[in-house]
Amino acid sequence: MALRPLSKIDQLLLGVDKALRAVVPHSNPSTRPLPVSSDEIPELSITEARHVAGLMRINHTGEVCAQGLYHGQALTAKDDNVKQAMQQSAEEEVDHLVWCETRLDELGSHPSIFTPLWYGMSFGLGAVAGAISNEFSLGFVAETEAQVSEHLQDHIGQLPVQDQRSREILAQMDIEELHHRELALINGGAALSPPVRHTMRWMANRMKATAYHL
What we know:
Blueprint: H1 8-23, H2 46-76, H3 80-106, H4 115-132, H5 134-158, H6 164-186, H7 194-213
Helix pairs in contact: 1-2, 2-3, 2-4, 2-5, 2-7, 3-6, 4-5, 5-6
């Protein structure tokens, strides 16, 4: 039996469900296990654990922002193929969200208390980008993923030597972020102007500075 098309109410409820899953911890099932080679939890000093938790909180916040960005773009994108690509990327990055939550739990820590704010701001940016043009929207994704990759690689370098668990999680996330960047460029993403890129980087730096502590 053929499935009926989603009504406007159905689409609204689906969007609300996705938003809640992005901001409420432990509300997403992971489709893939942690990308780690051992189940052993590394022993860290109090100072090391606090620093790693701060880094993982930043990365979790980055994934929340990615969800908001993709959901906003999917809402306003003019091309159905772009909408589908945004939705697919958001679904793939749910695993990243769960991996960061899991590692934060292991460290006895928690996500940012400003998670709903990060999601809302990113949703708005994504919706604006999607409304401008497909090329700008995809270019925004490509630049976002490039900047995410930069801070993932920076965080990998800051991890304690013995924390192979966090290192493997972030390395797998980095591989997939760069893949999403390539997909955005292949599908027609345009290079953003320097002022836009610099503004994005400034906003990301403010987010990272806040999320590390809160």
